[in-house]
Amino acid sequence: MNDALKDRWGILYCPKQGIRNERKRREKLQQVLDGRGVPYDFVQSESADSVERLVTMLIHNGYKTIVIVGGDAALNDAVNCLMREEKQVRDQVALGLIPNGHVNDFAHYWGFDDDNDAQTVDWLMKHRVRKIDLGCIRYENKQGERICRYFQDCVNIGLSADIMNLRRQARQLLGSRKLAFLSSLVLMVFHRHDYKMRLKINCDAIERSVMTVCIGNAHGYGQTPSAVPYNGLLDVSLVYNPKVKQLIEGLWLLVTGRFLNHRSVHPYRTCEIVVESSKALVSVDGCPAEKPVGEYRIHVEQEVINFLIPE
């Protein structure tokens, strides 16, 4: 172990796409870090593709505290980098997060504030580590490759995968998280679709038309509000195709945090879900995934990542 880096943070800064004042944002964060005397080294990603390369570099250079300044997608890349390492290496690394994405659902789950870097840094300095679970989706792509992708928040199948993509694009255009969320909800009304699916959840075999499925390790952008990333289980919200009036009601319940109260939402709790048949799109932590070919599985791996949590 490199003793010089034992207490030094390796910080990966992931700029928001389409934001003009990123330099000021970065400088403001560095002022907070310097003001608190945090020892750190700072690297910046040039693109989404460079995140995994830079996180791997930080791990192999011996940093024991790696802080991602980014959103759900950047954190997902970091999580997958760690999961490719041997357990003895992974167990020595604590992963921290400073929200700086277009969508920061996992940060919001823990109570991190997008606009309060000082509070976030103070919390991270306390170095409160919690072992958290990760979900994992395993599937085969069109090239016949076996893919394993971990997620800290959720996997969406069906309409929600479309909506998450719309929400990300709207955030880049509108600049406001709330406006992007509301606009994507409105667009949902005009993008209603049914997807024929055959699923196996616990002892239930489900074969019918489904609008959307959310498999949450955490809040799942409001669709699995009772999920927690430390109980060894995944929450599943299965949504059948509601009528227009019921759909509008469902949108309101989603916004107000009462999504599970809707009559078209069927909740489950499981350690594994098998998607035996589905042609619906899939997103992992809000990012589009390759379209799976044939049957695929989603399960949970318990207490595999050291995550820095608030006090």
Please describe what this structure looks like.
The protein has 311 residues and is α+β, with helices and mostly antiparallel strands. Helices cover 32% and strands 32% of the residues. It is built from nine helices and 16 strands. It has helices at 22-35, 50-60, 72-83, 87-90, 105-110, 117-125, 159-174, 177-190, 244-255, and strands at 9-13, 40-44, 65-70, 94-99, 129-140, 146-151, 154-158, 195-201, 204-210, 212-216, 234-239, 265-270, 272-278, 282-284, 287-288, 296-308. Strands 1, 2, 3, 4, 5, 6, 8, 9, 13 and 16 form a ten-stranded mixed sheet that branches. The longest helix is centred in the middle third of the chain and has 16 residues, at 159-174.
Structural descriptors:
311 residues; alpha+beta; ten-stranded mixed β-sheet; six-stranded antiparallel β-sheet
Biggest β-sheet, characterized? Answer: 10 strands, mixed
Based on CA atoms alone, the radius of gyration comes out at 19 Å
- Counted by DSSP, the helix tally is 9
| Structural class computed from helices and strand pairing | alpha+beta
Q: Based on Cα principal axes, name the global outline.
A: elongated
Beta-strand portion reads 25-35%
What is the element string, with H for helices and E for strands?
A: EHEHEHHEHHEEEHHEEEEHEEEEE
Helix fraction by DSSP (H/I, runs of at least 4): 25-40%
What is the total tally of β strands? 16
Distance between the termini: 28 Å
Q: What's the pLDDT, averaged over the residues?
A: 85
Low-pLDDT stretches: 252-256
